[in-house]
Amino acid sequence: METILDRIIEQKKKEVLLLQDSKEIIQEAEYPKRSFIEKLQTAKELSIIAEYKRASPSKGLINNGVEPEVQAAIYEKSGASAISVLTDSTFFKGSFSDLKAVREAVNLPILCKDFIISPVQIDVAAAHGANIILLIVAALEESHLQDLFQYAKAKGLEVLVEVHNQKELEIALKTGAKLIGVNNRDLKTFTVSLEVTEQLAEIVKNSGAYLISESGIHTEQDAERVRNAGAKGVLVGEALMVSQDIEASFLNLRLPLQEGVNK
Q1: 171-199: per-residue pLDDT in tens?
Q2: pLDDT the model gives residue 190
Q3: Buried-most residue among 63, 94, 151, 263 (CB within 10 A)?
Q4: What is the pLDDT of residue 15?
Q5: Dist. CA 16–CA 11, nearest whole Å
Q6: Could you state, in order of their start, the residue ranges of all structural domains in the chain?
Q7: How far apart are CA 207 and CA 205, in angstroms?
């Protein structure tokens, strides 16, 4: 049975062909290097990757009323450690233009959040100001994951490798990734459970990688739960996109890292 992820990947294959025909948009721009990993190394509290996301396949339209540079500036002022920008247009109503707008508005590390299956997408992400790219184990063959990981690293980008279960995590760790994102949302069914982070946290910690918990984090209790499991950071989109008081939302999520946790 075809899943949402299957549909997204098929669409990405078409988009990659278009990108390969549009060489002019892959002109390298000079952006200062900004490292999320360096921030994590000295963090005393849970790091927040705040996401700009207009829509999603599971929720439909979330917030299409705020411009990316405006939202990103609020995120930076509120204490975000990094900003994630959805660049998928078909399913999330994002664009690489959104990424560039955010890059020009803030001084934080920026994650290009997309379903990357080709080096050309990495080229475009870097050209629009990304410092970090997302690679999703569920969307890639293992050898292809390794190739894309090394390609991104060679371009000076950091890589957040996303997993949903132990089998995917074992594949991810073979890349040597320092950033492991545990997505609490099953990309095939779109159900969400913070237990996914709790189940995989120990393996990530033992590998020496930084654990970032993704999806399903809305409240202080949610953040506390994944922090206690060992997460060093959280990726939060919907909760911040619909928040009526973003600074207050950040205060609820920016919890101190417990001594002895995530060592």
Answers
A1: 999 999 999 999 998 877 778 999 999 99
A2: 75
A3: 94
A4: 92
A5: 9
A6: 37-253
A7: 5
- What is the number of alpha carbons within 13 Å of residue 62 lying toward its C-beta? 21
Domain 37-253 in CATH: superfamily?
Aldolase class I (3.20.20.70)
Tokens of 129: 């100001």
Residue with tokens 């998928």: 88
Instruction: Record the tokens describing residue 225, joined without a space.
Output: 């739960």
Report pLDDT for 28: 64
Cα separation of 10 and 190, whole Å? 18
Torsion of CA 181, 71, 243, 248, to 10 degrees: 90
pLDDT at 58: 74
Q: Are 134 and 160 in contact (CB under 8 A)?
A: yes
Pull the structure tokens for residue 80.
């975000």
Catalytic residues: 51, 53, 113, 162, 183, 214-215
Q: Which residue has the tokens 């279960």?
A: 165
**C-alpha span between 10 and 224 (Å, rounded):** 37
Half-sphere exposure (CA, 13 Å, Cβ side) for 42? 5
Q: Beta strand pairing status for 60-61 and 55-56?
A: antiparallel
H-helix or E-strand containing 161? strand 158-163
Please give the structure tokens belonging to residue 15. Answer: 């988009």
pLDDT reported for residue 261 = 46
Contact 93, 54 (CB under 8 A): yes
Report the first-to-last Cα separation within the chain, whole angstroms.
41
Predicted pLDDT of residue 32? 84
Low-confidence ranges of the chain (pLDDT < 50): 259-263
State which H helix or E strand residue 127 sits in. helix 119-127
